[in-house]
Amino acid sequence: MVFALSVSGCVPGQYAEVPAVTGVSSAEIVGTWRCIDGTAVTMRKDGTAVVKLLDGQEFDFDDQWRMSGTGTWELTDRDIGWGDGQHVSLSVTRRTSSAWREVKGAEEGAVGSTDLREPTPDAYTWTLELERGDKGLALYFFFSDPDNRNTYYLEKERSTAESSGPSSSAVPAQGMVRWK
Hints:
- With 180 residues, the protein is mainly beta.
- The protein has one helix and eleven strands, in the order αβββββββββββ.
- It has one helix at residues 26-29, and strands at 31-34, 40-43, 48-55, 65-76, 87-100, 124-133, 136-142, 151-156, 158-159, 170-171, 176-178.
- A hairpin with a 2-residue loop joins β6 and β7 (136-142).
- It starts with 25 loop residues before the first helix and ends with a strand.
- The relative contact order is 0.21.
């Protein structure tokens, strides 16, 4: 008896475990986190947050909107993300502005066309996964099809005391978006 498995559509690492990070304190989350193209998320000690140009999570990323606004954040160990361990729940409860991510090759009537875009929501909640690496703690979420594990990383802005860089008051981290 011969069994054939269809491998079309399978992505290496598609169902890989998401690392569980624990032992993170709220103090480690407080600060400004950055990604590409002007994204900045500031999480304050009092649980409030300011978001600038943050893309949508998972399939909402494909709608191409970028949101700015104010809201709240919470470090939690509730089972809300893709992995076990702790997560950050980030909610924009008051959108202050929105923008559209530029899509190269968008033609009139194509998916990237302004006529077919979904509007930016008035409020939105992200579930951020945590990762500890050589550069310290990073926050991330999956974008587009989450099974593909495309990751949108936010890296914390480091103060001068934490880095050996220039003598400015803060050294911005360089977040990244990684397609697998």
